[in-house]
């Protein structure tokens, strides 16, 4: 269960990172779209001439990519919402648990190390370590 909880937290963080990357990619595509869009008061560009830099990607293709990115962002946001709800449910159930084993388990899930748990619960660290090892075996 501890691994599942940590996996949920990791998946939420990974989805957030993915969204950031997708948003950055979307902004880059928008820059390309605006730089290649026709303008009415500009001199002719010779960037297609030898030695010039030219992007042959059509606006239609850029638009498609931008739509795919928007869809991927939407999916990741939905995923974060679902994982967040699951995490909240687990948190509320874990808070209901009683006894030292459950307190240790819950605190480990929250990211406390055994020394911090021992200090917080006012127990000897070696005792907390023994109890925690029994939790992992169960």
Would you kindly provide a written description of the structure presented here, covering whatever features stand out?
- The protein has two domains: 1-35 and 58-89; 97-138.
- It is mainly alpha-helical.
- The termini are close together.
- α3 crosses α5 (125-137) and α4 (114-121) packs across α5.
- It has five helices and no strands.
Q: How large, in whole angstroms, is the Cα Rg?
A: 26 Å
- Give the ordered list of helices and strands: HHHHH
Counted by DSSP, the helix tally is 5
Global morphology: elongated
What attributes does this structure have?
5 helices, 75% helix, mainly alpha, elongated, 138 residues
In short:
By secondary structure, the chain is mostly helical. The protein is 75% helix and 0% strand.
